[in-house]
Structures are given as structure tokens and as C-alpha cells.
Amino acid sequence: MPTESTFLLAGLFFVAAALGYFFAVFGDDDEEEEELATGQLNADYIKGLNFLLNEQPDQALEVFMRMVEVDDETLETHFALGSLFRRRGELNRAIRVHQNIIARPNLSVGHREQAMVSLAEDYLSAGLFDRAEKLYQDLRESAEYGVRALHKLIRIYESTNDWEPAIEAYQALEKIEPDAGEDGRVAHYYCELAEQAAMDRDFPRARELLKKAGGGRRGADRVRLVLAGLAQETGDHKEAVKVYRQVMKDQPRLITEVVPRLAESCRELDDQNLLTKSLKELCKGTGDGGKAIALATVYDPRIVNETALECLREYVLSDEVLGNLVDTASLERGDANDQRVALDKLREGLGGFVSQTHRYRCTECGYVTSQLIWQCPTCRSWETILPAAQLSVETPVT
Ligand SMILES: [Zn+2]
User: Fold this and answer.
1) Under 8 Å between Cβ of 388 and 360
2) What is the pLDDT of residues 5-24, one digit of tens each?
3) Please, what are the domains in the chain?
4) pTM of the predicted model, to two decimals?
């Protein structure tokens, strides 16, 4: 089967042949100097291609580098060569090709920017974010590559957790692409900064940053969760409970995540009735509120509440897989005390059985994690990691 290199080499042959034809047809036969140059050019091409075919990339590189010094017409071939090296993971060679192009005198603006973009891609692939960032910053005003440069800068700042420049770049992008703001990333950037400020115990700054995050559709859940966290940190558990209840009402998908936090604040307030009332409200709806509470109860053994345990009992009785695994009759027979003992035992067993590492799953790429994170580290999507709808069994380490 032909490989990518085969196609590229075929392309290089084609360019070489086309250049030969070009010089043969349009070349000025009267100018001996150009004839000599053309002959040298073709000879160099054949030499370079031979080195490539013989898997001698360094020798091929030397030949092609010399050619760039003599002829403009070979530029596209050199871009293709640089791209080939990058895709093969030979980043030092790709960087050398693109640096060589940029160093050429009298390069057109278009070719210079194309080479800068290519070199920045090489740097990104090599993990040299600071060098890539500088090139993309220089390209921001480019008519052709400006938007691309902003997208790449945002990606770099997200990877390096540089949230302030990320905000600046994203706001610049929104001026060009008004739809860009709809994914709510800026709110997440402000939340990142607010969480850092909260870790530094600078709560006024954290609140100020959350105000800037705004009340957009996306990112709003996180803003409210961070706000509730700040309320907890500063001892305002009543406020925290109020916010948590609102989040769960608006976003049932976050119930499993929020119930342990709510339970914590209710413990601090020494008010189990408030927790019971909140949980009962969640069960009233037609959704899976009860099931989400049951999952939270398995994950967090500190939740001690009759309504939460009742949700767990109902979940186990209604779940086909669990129903076959456990003695469900023990949850229904005998007096309330016997049932409670059986339920506690089952809960403890499930707690040791379920996978903490599979608690959350990215709906885009399937990445699993043990804690709620707002940007998937694999597919880079925001708000696609959600609490799993089912308990997963821990896979033993072999
Ligand atoms: Zn993902």
C-alpha cells in the first residue's frame, strides 16, 4: 500500500519534472548562465530525491537547503518537504526547512507568513509553546492567518493555564467572529482565575472575577458552583445551600456532583431537615433525580440521610444488574431495622466495589476521570465531562 511518504515523493518528482519542463519551454536559451543554473537545479533535485528514497533525510535536506538558496520556484516543494518531516515526527528537520525559508531575502509577505505558520506548527508539535506563541503573536494582524493565529494562541494559553492572555485573545477573536463567544470559554477562564484567587484566600478578588465571567448560558453552572464554594469557604453555608439547590434544579445532570457538597453544608449547619427537604424536591420530578442521589450516596459515605438511603434502596431494587447481584429480598423483608442493616451493608459493599476513576465521562471522546473537570484534556472540549449515569466496577490492576 502506498504510504504518505510515497505520495509526497511522487509529488516532489512531479514538481521536479514540472520545473524541468518550465525551464525547458520558457527558459532563455541565449543565457548560458540560466541554463547552467537550470541544469544544476535538476541535478540537485534528482540528487535530493535519491537521498530521500534511500532514507538519507539529512543528506537530502542539505541538498534541498542549497536549492532554496538559488531558486524561488522551489518554495512550494520546500513547504511540502517541511510538512512531510513534521508529519513523520522529524521536527528538527521540519524546523530547519521552515527557518531556512523565512531567512530568505526578498520573500513575499504571503510566503513569509506561510512559513511562519508552518514553523509555528513545528514548534507546537515539539512542545515549544513559547516560540510558537511568539510567531502567532506576530501573525495576529495578518489578513490571511490572523484568525488562525488567535485560535492557536488560545489553544496554547489553555494548555499552559495562562488565563489572562487567553481572555485577551478570545475577546479579540470575538470581535472578528461574534459566534466565538457562544461556547462560554471566557466564563471558564474567569472561573479558573477565581479558583486560583480562592486558593490564595483572596475572596474579594475571586468574587470580582466571577462578576466578570458574566451570566452567559455556557459557563454559568461553573460560575454558580464556584460562588457556592466561596460561600462555603467563608462560612456562609445558607447561601451555599441556596445556590446548590438552584443548580440541581436547573441542571439535573450535575445532581450527583452537587449532592455531596450540599450535604457538607447541611452538616455544617447541623440541619438534616434542610438536606431532606432538598433531596425530596429532586425526587419529585419525572427525571432521574432519585438515581443521581443514589449514586452520590454510594460515592460519598459521609452522606447520612434517610431520604438519600431510600433513593439508594429504590435504585438497587429497580436496577437489573444489581438486582441479580445482591440479595434484594433482604431490602424488603423484616422490620425497618433489618432493612436498614441490609442497606448499610450493601452500601458499604458497593462503595468498595465501584470505580472512583470512572465517575465522570466525556460525552465527546469517552475520556474518564475521577473528578469533575470542565475542559476535557483529551479532546479539549468544554463542559462535556459529566457524572456517569451508571456505577462502574473497579478494574483490578494486573
Ligand atoms: Zn473529551
Assistant:
1) yes
2) 554 555 555 454 444 443 44
3) 266-353 (no CATH), 354-398 (2.20.28)
4) 0.79
